[in-house]
Amino acid sequence: MNKTRFISHAAKRLIDHKALYAQLIITRDxxxxxxxxxxxxxxxxxxxxxxxxxxxxxxxELGVLVYDILGGEPVMHPGLPALVAHIxxxxxxxxxxxxxxxxxxxxxDIIDALNQAGLDLMQLSVDSVKPGSQSMKSLKSLLPKxxxxxxHARFTVxxxxxxxxxxxxxxxxxxxxxxxxxxxxxxxxLHKAGGKIAIKGREYVDLFDRxxxxxxxxxxxxDARALLEGDFNRPWQCLGGSKFLxxxxxxxxQWCSQQTGADIPLxxxxxxxxxxxxxxxxxxxxxxxxCARLVSHALGEPLKSIKVGLATLAGIQR
Length: 318
Description:
The protein is 37% helix and 14% strand. It has helices at 3-12, 49-61, 80-88, 108-117, 139-152, 165-168, 171-177, 202-211, 221-229, 271-276, 290-300, 302-316; strands spanning 21-25, 66-70, 96-101, 121-125, 156-163, 184-189, 244-247, 252-254, 264-265. The chain has 318 residues and is α/β, with parallel strands linked by helices. It contains twelve helices and nine strands.
């Protein structure tokens, strides 16, 4: 990544009507069926690679600099490395690409292909020490994949855990078992359908204080802690559909994974459409959708964002 160009481009998003961040769903198919997840459809067809290239071209036209590629399970899509390379060919490399995966299907060939494509970051979903009733994404199942990533990945790896009553009980032990791995760590919070946080209480606040959040996610550290306390009074404005775009498999823009919002076809979207969505949303109170909140807080607190962003980029490029 060209860090200087990224920062100069991203700074423009504070004053223009263009988007900054997009989540691009490339398949709804998944090899797992985690109880807390509603973002998969077993056996669903992959979005064709050529169509996804066109969507990336459109997102680039709308100003996007930060991309998450996800599903379902994106590694199931045979065009994944080509899509990463296509994104990295935009903006003279002044962009950031993350793949969000459960890790089960990773192989040396796939890791090498993603290295060659220029992937910046892989967010690996690992929830527990052993498989449980909510999730099969456990250290016991994924340890061989984590070792391969530690040895061969040229991109940053972040281990993301969905904080639930089940995973919270063993999270300290979970982190101790991974202490020697060169990874970053963070949480997302269990949410209800619609995106409202589904956990709260002293035990979660204490756990959060011990481990906190990864890199750029710290932009809304205080708000995340308040959510776990059950305090939804901190003001914020969701930028879903404007600065943050969630593009579903049909090629339509939603506010986020849980809220369809205006449901605008990406191919027809204009900066005027994005500007029209730059407003408060009725679902903001108690929202636990970290990706949407990250962008909203980043652009709502620009000076803090620059400081945290520089530290985060330095970590990604280490």
